[in-house]
Amino acid sequence: MKKWVPDTSVLINGKLTNLVETDKVEGEIIIPVTVIDELQAQASRGRDIGFQGLEELKRVRALGESGKKIKLVYTGRRPTMEEIMMAKKGRLDAMIRDVAKENSATLITADYVQALVAEAEGVSVMYMQNVRATAPIKLEDFFDDQTSSVHLKADVLPMAKKGKPGDVKLVKIRDAPVSEEEIESIIKEILDRVRHEKNAFIEMGSAGAMVIQFDKYRIAIARKPFSDGLELTAVRPMTKLVLSDYKLSDKLMERLKQKAEGVIICGPPGSGKSTFEASFAEFYM
Fold first, then answer.
1. What is residue 128's three-state secondary structure?
2. pLDDT 10s digits, 41-70
3. CA proximity to 231, closest of 140, 153, 161
4. pLDDT value at residue 81
5. Omega of the bond prior to 6 within 30 degrees of 0, cis?
6. Domains of the chain: which residue ranges?
7. Model confidence over 128-185: pLDDT tens digits?
8. How does the average pLDDT of the chain come out, rounded?
9. What is the distance between the alpha carbons of residues 244 and 42, in angstroms, rounded to a whole number?
């Protein structure tokens, strides 16, 4: 029976499910206890990647129970506190490779460095290379040229703010509510792309809340207990202005050139605060 050992990276990005569904992975799937502990630690800190990895394991188990030719086995030992502290230096990755070696299994990873080291150590590797995606993300389907922000909440009609700064209206995008599964699919795609694209990063992640900068989109995700249901809000700038476009007084411009503290920007929704703030940031940069 063919044996496989997936590492944390391939579980977080949800690629193992696809491999099992397409029968590219059959046989015994060995899950190192180290992987479970790492995912649990991330989830306990409220980080979405931990939840994504654990949900992926549940999906793979369900595929086995539905008739796919796989068998899940958990093995290995729990990492010591010292090994956890050395995680960033590759200690946990080394423990996962050790499990693959001890069981004569093929390591499945989406981490290039992990794949390279495994090959150097003589471990069989299936490297799930992440090709930079150029296609638009699903979220962009909710935007048009007049949309400044999109607001999605499970089982609620999707809404959007449309118009120019100072003249913005909140309108429904379609007549059918957005489902939790649809939002989860959008989030999963965004998180997968974030890990591999230079113009995207996770700005903040805590229990029930996450903020992501994805190219021109600023995306806020809220879950229980932070929100009473799954929500996603995405905002993008409608226009780009520089500070001189605002025709500020010479006295104020002179003060802004001398120091950057004590600036408060306020105004009603849709009045252009973010665009104004961006002009300040570019001015000081």
1. coil
2. 878 776 777 888 899 999 999 999 998 999
3. 153
4. 62
5. no
6. 3-127, 138-235, 243-284
7. 876 555 567 889 999 998 898 999 999 999 999 998 766 889 999 999 999 998 998 8
8. 85
9. 45
**Do residues 108 and 114 touch, judged by C-beta distance below 8 A?**
no
The Cα 152–Cα 149 span in angstroms is 10
- The CA distance from 254 to 167, in Å, is 31
- H helices present in the chain, as ranges: 8-12, 15-21, 33-44, 48-65, 81-85, 91-102, 112-120, 180-194, 250-258, 273-284
**What is residue 92's predicted lDDT score, i.e. its pLDDT?**
82
Strands 106-109 and 3-6: parallel
Place of tokens 């229980």: 224
What CATH number is given for 3-127 in this structure? 3.40.50.1010
Token pair 């104020």: residue: 252
Q: Which residues contact 54 (CB under 8 A, 6 or more apart)?
A: 39, 40, 43
Q: Specify the CATH architecture of the domain 138-235.
A: 2-Layer Sandwich (3.30)
